[in-house]
Amino acid sequence: MVDLKTGSGKDKKSFLKVLTDVEKGIYVEKWGISGDELEAGDGWRIEKCRLYGGLSDGVDVITVDNGKLSFVVVPTRGMGIWKGEYRGTFLGWSSPVNNVVHPCHINLEARGGLGWLDGFNEWVVRCGLGSFGAPGVDVIRDNTGGEKKVILTLHGRIANIPAGVVKVKVGLEPSFELGVEGVVHERTMFGSNLKLTTSITTTPGSSSLKISDAVENLRGVPDEMQLLYHCNYGGPFLERGTRFVAPIRRVAPRDSIAAEGVDGFDVFGPPESGFAEQVYFMELLGNDDGRTKVMLVSRDETKAVSVSFSSKELPFFTLWKNTAAVEDGYVTGLEPATSFPNLKTFEREKNRVIKLKPGESYRAEVTLSVHLGKDEVQEACYDIEKIKGKTKPTVFKEPIRDFSPV
Fold this sequence. Notes:
- This protein has one domain: Distorted Sandwich (Beta-galactosidase, Chain A, domain 5), CATH 2.70.98.10.
- It is mainly beta.
- The chain contains 5 helices and 27 strands.
- Helices cover 8% and strands 43% of the residues.
- Strands 1, 2, 3, 13, 14, 15, 16, 18, 21, 22 and 26 form an 11-stranded antiparallel sheet that branches. Strands 10, 17, 19, 20, 23, 24, 25 and 27 form an 8-stranded mixed sheet that branches. A 6-stranded antiparallel sheet has the order 4-5-6-7-8-9.
């Protein structure tokens, strides 16, 4: 199914290809399109295929290549982004989970609620929507009206739910925006019914991609929602001497392990066998519009990656440092979110869990960028310095009750 859509006003003409629509019985296994074919920009291509064999059997992947930046969207895994590349430089990390894993092989309740990790290897993965953070016990009201204890598993369900609608959309007028759109439902009888509508876009030759999400409550009663973007980087951007740069208002270690490294929370070490993860919770400053940005900057300041977002939409930020041996996953996570990734009961106590009215939507947007060369890196760092102004961050040496259940 191919449509040429013409909008009015500020809308532009666009090419639309529906690859999956469960309700309409549409499914396209293999497909591709390029700028040459559409006469819309140069050097880009979008391809969709289905993987076969092993734990990847049955997984759909869509590769968007804008000519310089390419990335792989996985509709089968909640519209996450598996990996990417910019001008030959790898984006993502090397997980012990080598290949993309079909959700049918994931038992979220395994290992005491840590089963999510059996499929964790994405460059960008959403956590939520009903909950994210540490596994543990929560209390809900069941279909009889009584209270019932339930197990919340690590980082929720959305990353292991296939999309029911998947489309490719290309703008036919400058800037020739390239995008993959998807709809994922996280729902159950007598429980949450949350609809994620996402658009993942870039433009030809760009060094950035943008994720635009809306989460809608389809229930007839109010419901809770949590959303976290787990943006993960290993080498070559993560190395000994890599620095974390951000406009920090307050930062505190999550626990006693993180407190041991708080004096160097913003500097990374080399791969270290047996390293125990260190997690730091932060509140960031934003500009006049609420926009903020965080970065990883290499030791020689010749390469960097950044994540920018609205501090109004995603007001809480987590830095995950896991500089373990390369074989065990040498990685750091830059994680903007609607709350901190503590157990949901604690975040609810702190009034950080979003409550959606029936039919209400929550919107968030995240932009990931690559900066190569000292000039580009310095320019991006200057953007952060402008946000910081003269504010000096408050660095707590120990966990604080406002951020962590200490």
